[in-house]
Amino acid sequence: MKKNFVLSHPKLSYQRIIEAAKNEVKQYIKQQRTKALPEGADFWGFNCKFGQVADKARSIHEGDINTNISSAQSQHWKSFYLEVIPTPKTRAKRTQD
Question: Which superkingdom, per the lineage (predicted)?
Fold first, then answer.
């Protein structure tokens, strides 16, 4: 998912648009996690980028998406760019001390 979210609409409130964006991202991640994993992968990880525009987007952790959207809301951004790319990952084994 590579998307510019526009945060203005003639009939919807700003808060409602923010909540709809958060919900859309949550649903996308949930949908991607249900897809079949390739051989040798343990789980779906997500490479995420967030920013006002695609060129200035910085890498963020998947768990920080809502925090960054809320930050954009508090700064009254007119739009933001979000990139969420699913990647198959394997768990790292812990070393026994």
Answer: Bacteria
Cβ partners under 8 Å of residue 65, min gap 6: 22, 25, 48, 50, 82, 84
**Residue 41 in this model has a pLDDT that exceeds 80:** yes
Give the tokens for residue 38: 């390739």
Residue 89 scores a pLDDT above 90: yes
Q: What is the C-alpha separation between 27 and 37, in angstroms, rounded?
A: 18
Measured over all CA atoms, what is the biggest interatomic distance in the chain, rounded to whole angstroms? 60
* Side chain identity at residue 93, one-letter code: K
Q: What angle do CA 60, 63, 68 make, to 5 degrees?
A: 60
Rounded to an integer, the average pLDDT of 62-72 is 96
Q: 62: which DSSP letter?
A: G
Q: State residue 70 phi and psi, 5-degree precision.
A: -65, -35
